[in-house]
Amino acid sequence: MQVARPDSLVSQILPAVADYLDSPAKLLLGGTSTAASDGRTMDVFNPATGKKLAEVPWGGAAEIDLAVKAAQAALEGDWSRMRPVERQRVLLNLADLIEANGEELAQLETLNNGKSVMLSRLVEVGNSSNYLRYMAGWSTKIEGSTIDVSIAVPPGAKYQAYTRKEPVGVVGAITPWNFPLNMAIWKLAPALACGNTVVLKPAEETPLTSLRLGELCLEAGLPPGVVNVVSGTGAEAGAALTAHPGVNKLTFTGSTEVGKIIGIQAMRDMKRVTLELGGKAPMVMFDDMDLDQLSEAARIGILFNSGQTCCAGTRIYAQRGIYDRICETMANVVGALSVGSGLDPANAINPMVSAKHQAHVSACIAGGVEEGATPLLDTGAYDGEGYFVRPQIFTDVRQDMRIMQDEVFGPVFTITPFDDPDEAIRMANDTRYGLGASIWTTNLNTMHRYVPQLQAGTVWVNSHNVPDANMPFGGYKQSGIGREHGRAALDAYLETKSVCIAVR
Ligand code: NAD
């Protein structure tokens, strides 16, 4: 069933979703749906209730090995013989199937991740199907170039050269829990458009939509082994995939800490690697900004997905003339947001993904208070069921405080005044991260002067936190290596082969 109106309440879980939750989901290995070889399963939870939601297979090194071998075999099979236009058609089929099963996928995602069903419908389903369509278009536009060369050996010889773009091979894709289906598609779509095969390892907290995606891949006409899905932990399945000699490229989205482990392993094996990591994005707000945008800045720029977004604008730097007004407006806007289950789209703050993450975010808030920052909202700890955290805003925050430097990944942000714009940009750049940033001004000169000075892979102006399939996305500094989206993403999934022809 296609998605319901994005802002409509889920009053009843669809029978197809209930059935899927009751019958244990399966790994997808070489076109076969299967349990783990030793029968192990792991529980996944509903963050809104803290109760067990379903069981999934607990894949480990053995399943990863089978998946990689299936992906290697598939590289040589029907997939490699498909013409680009046929690859394109299969990806378009998959996009249609995601849409056709949209409401099931959206409900499944909200039950497993906790997020607002409105975001599940718009992003996990809507953006995923459109992202596939965008990347499907690139399948038929992969091209090399002809090159004139000046090779002088042996004397008198003539050469003509050209380049071919070829699939990099088996792609190991490791995804986080914050946008489970969408992150899987951000990796699968360009990898498949370029003719690669994939082993997907979703986050242990949120494997359900990725396992369901595996089934839809087969239904869409992807030959067996082209996409394989192994649920399991990072320490076991993730590490096994990272180290597997049959994997040619790793694409990872997750924390900077794990990204470094994966990057080091990739270098040991000379695997190609793309790392999309953490962030601590600044929003620099100038006196001349349109203050009517503040509510949207809070809801979309900062608290989208309950703040569990890598480029969330968690550090506001406000020019002195509007500082008080910003503090007051943000406190009013954020204080009025309702906290509750994602099945009701009226709730803007939904649970954190896990008990562990709830404890982490709560500890960050307590840590901010201990460091001497001033909490603006008079909210206590959440004492009901589920993994909820009430939002918090801090003022009086020094640059060296952890609440200013470390990623919280929850509904928490800081507001700091500035007098000198150059100093504001210096503070904005003063973390180890560099994923996103934004400038809020109605002055064109201010915009042009400071955009080049911000150290971030994406700089938004008068908006924040809105990516697009055609707009390169990735991190400066410790926010990552490489870019996703747009034409730039394709190069990460292709090898360049120079062909040099002696002309006799
Ligand atoms: P995480 O790093 O803990 O886990 C991400 C994935 O890595 C999971 O699938 C996990 O199982 C796996 N993993 C963990 N240890 C591993 C290991 N040793 N070897 C291989 N795989 C391993 O991150 P998370 O908590 O799931 O996600 C939140 C983080 O992701 C935040 O830091 C956030 O900023 C980042 N993120 C970044 C982007 C981006 O595009 N830059 C997007 C979303 C999330």
From TrEMBL:
Report whether Oxidoreductase shows up as a keyword of the record: yes
What is the organism of origin for this protein?
Ruegeria pomeroyi (strain ATCC 700808 / DSM 15171 / DSS-3) (Silicibacter pomeroyi)
Q: What is its EC number?
A: 1.2.1.39
Q: Where is the Aldehyde dehydrogenase domain?
A: 37-499
Stored Pfam families: Aldedh (PF00171)
* Protein name per its UniProtKB record: Phenylacetaldehyde dehydrogenase
What top-tier enzyme class does this entry carry? oxidoreductase
- Write one Gene Ontology MF term: phenylacetaldehyde dehydrogenase (NAD+) activity
Positions the record marks as coiled coil are: none
Could you tell me which PROSITE patterns the record lists for this protein?
ALDEHYDE_DEHYDR_CYS, ALDEHYDE_DEHYDR_GLU
Family membership noted in the UniProt record:
Belongs to the aldehyde dehydrogenase family.
